[in-house]
Amino acid sequence: MENSKHYSRVVVKIGSSTLTHSTGHINIRRVEELVKVLSDVKNSGCELIVVSSGAVAVGVGKLGLKRPCDMPTKQAAASVGQCELMYLYDKLFAQYNHTVSQVLLTRDEVEIPKRNEHIVNTMRRLLELGVIPIVNENDTVSVEEIEFGDNDTLSAIVSSIVGADLLILMSDIDGLYDKDPHKYPDAKRIYEVNAITDEIRALAGSAGSSLGTGGMITKIAAAQIAMQNHTDMVIINGERPQNLYDVMEKKAIGTWFVRKG
Length: 261
Ligand code: GLU
Prior knowledge:
alpha/beta, 8-stranded mixed beta sheet, globular, binds glutamic acid
């Protein structure tokens, strides 16, 4: 990825599979490393907004529930898990002297003009105050008509709300491949995409993880929204939080989505 752009306002989306073990319990080492690297990126002068999944996964783990859950159980689990997540983020970021805030959204906040204006203003003020907003869908009140459905889409919308210059999707895959890497060992990672074509959409297939709701299709949809708003996007594996340093240095890691012209 070659360009001389320096990113100054970055949205980082962290998927459930990055935050939790397959048991649904928090992956403590991973989250600690992640918060350390994010704090360092923020210290380097970059404004950060985190879109964190994991409310449902953590809540299900903490309550000892089995999946799949019915809607009220899922919403109750999100209510428990969101609390646990924010407790952890608050505690860990505080170690590096950073203040976090919780922002829970539904489509109404984005699509109803008056509410959209409020959320734009609030986010702007939070960033001016040096806060790291931690955003999630308000799963406890979200029903079909007002839900985003997945945090890939939500993170692209948040990027447009805050006018981010980069969106980083931390997932359980290394990026977009020219064929399904689970089926074909010779599949090759695509390093850079400059336009969302039918061919790219077809490559996305329907691969997803069992913990979150997003798959490659929702990531490509997020890339489309981001590129329309002149926000660069990159998909990287969240397994190694240090990867974020490589992203900030624009190294050839993951798959970059950069609109040309
Ligand atoms: N909002 C959901 C949660 O916090 C996750 C949605 C997603 O993973 O895309 O559990």
